[in-house]
Amino acid sequence: MPRATDSVGEFTRELLGRGHTTLRAGFERSVRALRLHGVRHWFRRERDAFRQTLKTALACAVAWELAKYLIYHGDPQVHAVLAPVAVLITMQVTIYQTFRRGLQQVAAVVLGVIAALALGAYIELTWYTLSALVIIALIIGRTLRLGTQVNQVATTSLLVYSLGRGYGLERVWDTLLGAGVGIIANAAVAPPTYSSAAAKDLADLADDLAELCREVAKALGSTWDAADARRWLDRSRSLFGDSQDTEEVADQAEEAVRYHPRRSALEAEVNRVDQAAICLSHVAAQLNGLLRGLYDLANGNRGLPAATDVPEALGILLLDAGRALNRFGRLQIPDRDSRQVLEELKVIITAADDHQLSAIEDMLPIGAHAVERWSVHGALLDGVRRMLYELDPVAGPHTLAIPPIAPASVASSST
């Protein structure tokens, strides 16, 4: 029987591995974006993230200084860290959630102070009174539906219980000040729309899908086996999960404009991002189905002998899909090259129509299991055709996913 420490060690290694994988994936995405689109477009992708980071840092500094002089009267021995903490908790959300989370945080702290002062006058701090205090505080937080701030009630109660009434009052004032600064900064200074964050995620997802399409297309033109098909399918399933996460970010963008001062001007962009998220979700699902077909073919599923021969035109169409995805993702963050990028996307889709005709002519297997193989090849071809149809900026179902591009944006492409 394995020791508990072994299980803990494995769990720790798994967590560290996931963190390493996430960091590596983020770094690789940044490098790929730089390589594909250049420094200027990469900076445009990251511009809103830089702005929000700088705004949050400045708001924390303001909260620190205000707390130091208004609450602690400039005492150099006091470090007013709780006000900046309240800013951080409050600001990393939409305007609607900023108000909601700020109120929840203040309510949680006040309730925690009240609970600690009420019980602290009658009981002594021991392990069982501490447990009782935590239980009561958590019940209060959940009963009042304080969301992510439920644990703040218990945390504040324990700190006040152990550090005294004076700390409790200071914590309340710190939280009020920090939450107030966070709300004002988030609502008044470049309010976050999350449509830009969603557009960046969509651009990254499109590049990921394009890279997988290109990898599979190149392999189909040479040598591949069941192990390759398994790896492609696993990657595709992961990207489909990413597409669901991206749809959630698009939903957050819809919420972000609820109390935004420029709501009417931003709604069109939010709707566009939502359409783009749906488009890439469909493309990811279709690519996943196509790669499952290749996996079944390579492993001899569906009663067919294992084989890795597919129409050569299928690889060409996958290359078309990869190129179209690259342009579609680039368009999600408009810049001065967007007009040319859009024209390139139209040319790719038009050329793919001719490649589809070639693929249909190629799809005439002969010999044993010819009919069954024709059925599988037809499904593969139909999958990639559906992907291209989803990305079609003229006749596809998601034309609203393409941002409006002014004629003045015509310029030479950097890709």
Rough outline: elongated
Number of helices: 12
Cα separation of the termini: 57 Å
CATH architecture of the largest domain: Up-down Bundle
Number of DSSP strand runs: 0
Q: What structural category arises from helix and sheet content?
A: mainly alpha
CATH topology of the largest domain, anyone?
A: Methane Monooxygenase Hydroxylase, Chain G, domain 1
Helix-strand sequence: HHHHHHHHHHHH
Low-confidence stretches: 1-22, 408-415
CATH C-level category of the largest domain: Mainly Alpha
Mean pLDDT: 76
Organism: Catenulispora yoronensis
Protein name: Integral membrane bound transporter domain-containing protein
Domain Integral membrane bound transporter: 75-184
Membrane topology: Multi-pass membrane protein
